[in-house]
Design goal:
- This protein has 111 residues and is mainly alpha-helical.
- It has a domain at 47-111.
- The chain has two helices and two strands, in the order H-H-E-E.
- The longest helix has 20 residues, at 47-66.
- The protein is flat, with a radius of gyration of 20 Å.
- The relative contact order is 0.08.
């Protein structure tokens, strides 16, 4: 359980830009995307790379909402010590909008 939460940003100093001399290279996101498409290589910052941090944030939110310490089975993607809290990690889709159904004829679930 989390007691006395506080904002991490309070009192934090602003960061300074890293210079090109220190190895920083600024590339606009759209250019990185286009380069990735042309080369066929996955670019940094993809959804695949974001998965672990997204999973951790969602679990943290579930723990805050439930006011409990949770046990999590990562292989099954389920909280094991409180089945009801798993509701925070899933959603009920409206008819026609589930991941198995498609609102668009001919859509096969791939983009």
């Amino acid at each position: 359980m989390v007691e006395n939460p506080y904002l991490l940003s309070e009192g934090v100093k602003t960061s300074k830009e890293v210079s090109a001399a220190a190895g920083a290279v600024k590339v606009p996101g759209i250019k990185r995307f286009i380069d990735g498409v042309k080369s066929g290589k996955q670019i940094d910052g993809s959804f695949r790379q974001a998965w672990p941090i997204t999973e951790a944030v969602n679990l943290y939110a579930a723990a805050l909402r439930s006011h409990k310490t949770l046990m999590y089975d990562a292989d099954k993607m389920k909280i094991t010590n409180d089945e009801k809290v798993n509701e925070y990690l899933d959603r009920n889709y409206r008819k026609g909008w589930s991941l198995e159904e498609s609102p668009h004829p001919g859509f096969q679930g791939r983009i």
